[in-house]
Inverse folding.
């Protein structure tokens, strides 16, 4: 069994903020932002009919890994109105694969034809990603969630230790400054499954994120927090469809 630390390392790859594949329009909106939060606002990026259509590349996984993927789907479905179902014919679906290194996903519904982008919708889970909370984390990206610590008011809750961040990785700690994302009126959540761990992208083993509240831990990958569940339901289940 790998450790929590090693499983989180697989999220901290070469993608945007380590594990997010952004379409061109998303990337421009985030980088040019003016006011931010942490769940995707853009309704067109939400899955139609509150249903995630998926295709599991079963040759990439063993039976136990498929069970972990299915358990993560069931957990999300049981705590929201979200449904998951296998792909039928040629309809758009997220391809759940494990052939690349790391844990990463597109953010929100990202049809293959959108903007003629080269990146098709995928959720990649390599061998080191198979912790329940890690799979849930990536699936929440697929549903439209960004990372907790990049929210517009994060400096009221955490301190970023810039001198400990690997050279060239500083962009992973930028705050979103746009209405591209929203917190749905839910308070900052240290316990969110979408929060970076305290040593994310550290160049020296020292902390890169320090909570400003005493006796809290960040970066858990056990599963959704209560706030994560509330946000997910506000995003998909309370709005008119």
């Amino acid at each position: 069994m790998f450790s929590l630390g090693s499983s989180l390392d697989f999220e901290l790859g070469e993608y945007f903020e380590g594990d997010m594949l952004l379409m061109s329009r998303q990337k421009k909106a985030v980088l040019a932002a003016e006011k931010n939060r942490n769940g995707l606002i853009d309704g067109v990026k939400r899955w139609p009919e509150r249903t995630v259509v998926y295709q599991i590349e079963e040759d990439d996984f063993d039976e136990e890994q498929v069970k972990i993927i299915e358990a993560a789907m069931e957990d999300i479905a049981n705590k929201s109105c979200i449904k998951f179902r296998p792909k039928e014919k040629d309809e758009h679906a997220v391809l759940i694969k494990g052939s690349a290194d790391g844990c990463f996903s597109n953010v929100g519904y990202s049809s293959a034809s959108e903007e003629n982008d080269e990146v098709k919708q995928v959720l990649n889970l390599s061998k080191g990603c198979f912790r329940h909370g890690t799979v849930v984390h990536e699936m929440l990206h697929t549903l439209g969630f960004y990372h907790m610590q990049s929210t517009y008011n994060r400096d009221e809750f955490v301190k970023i230790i810039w001198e400990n961040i690997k050279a060239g990785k500083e962009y992973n700690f930028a705050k979103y400054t746009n209405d591209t994302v929203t917190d749905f009126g839910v308070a900052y959540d240290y316990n969110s499954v979408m929060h970076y761990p305290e040593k994310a992208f550290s160049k020296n083993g020292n902390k890169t994120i320090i909570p400003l509240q005493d006796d809290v831990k960040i970066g858990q990958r056990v599963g959704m927090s209560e706030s994560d569940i509330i946000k997910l339901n506000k995003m998909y289940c309370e709005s008119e469809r």
Remarks:
- The first helix runs from residue 4 to 9.
- The longest strand covers residues 51-56.
- Residues 70 and 216 are 30 Å apart (CA to CA).
- Confidence is low (pLDDT under 50) at residues 1-7, 32-37.
